[in-house]
């Protein structure tokens, strides 16, 4: 691959494995765009909740799936997301959205809508893009130049998440992560899964900097055609 060719990097994995932190840093370091697909699923979930759609009713979600306009920024230095022109970067991280996002993202009409957006964004990235999520290597961008699947023990992931939230209970955080992963892995449409040709990186005992260096090296090797 020549360096002028846009490079497409897919980074998947369960919750708290370091996908966002790694993807943003790798994209910034290599001058690539960045797309947080979890933020898109959170944004559509936020819209459903805000508009009184019952998130336990897949038919109600399916019929509303085409309504919100979701726009994602792709600058890794300042990721942005709007719904119908409103900045929702803060609200989409709230607990209510986190607890409902797996149910909303399991609805095939939601996935079809968001997948189309993701492919359009990736297709228009001039230098290339790092796209992170759960089904990027398997479904959204199966021809990605590099696929990475990040993992880490539930204990390490819970400790990382608890560190972000003052006073968070480690056991409850671990249970919530495991529950969300189980829902995301067991849905029928495009579940959380490692692509057969993805490079698996267990980040349990690695620092964030080590994971970033590892992925940057993998991208550079691809670019060099090795
Ligand atoms: N290798 C690492 N060592 C220690 N902490 C890390 C490591 N990777 C990420 N972190 C920290 O763990 C937390 C979760 O990371 P991040 O948000 O990147 O994970 P994620 O996989 O994108 O999670 P989610 O899918 O839930 O959005 C952050 O506070 C981040 O700084
Ligand atoms: N490609 C993706 C990305 C995310 N999801 C769903 O969104 C949830 C939130 O993701 P975060 O990365 O922000 O934690 C996640 O739990 C999935 O339900 C998805 O389905 N596909």
Summary tags:
about 230 residues, Rossmann fold, 5-stranded parallel sheet, 3-stranded antiparallel sheet, globular, binds the ligand Nc1ccn([C@@H]2O[C@H](COP(=O)(O)O)[C@@H](O)[C@H]2O)c(=O)n1, transferase, EC 2.7.4.25, Cytidylate_kinase_dom
Can you describe what's shown?
The chain is built from 9 helices and 8 strands. With 226 residues, the protein is α/β, with parallel strands linked by helices. It has a single domain (7-216), classed as P-loop containing nucleotide triphosphate hydrolases (Rossmann fold), CATH 3.40.50.300. It has a 5-stranded parallel sheet with strand order 2-6-1-7-8, sandwiched between helices. It starts with 6 loop residues before the first strand and ends with a helix. The chain binds adenosine-5'-triphosphate (ATP) and the ligand Nc1ccn([C@@H]2O[C@H](COP(=O)(O)O)[C@@H](O)[C@H]2O)c(=O)n1. Residues 15, 37-38, 41-42, 101-102, 105, 133-136, 180, 184 line the site of the ligand Nc1ccn([C@@H]2O[C@H](COP(=O)(O)O)[C@@H](O)[C@H]2O)c(=O)n1.
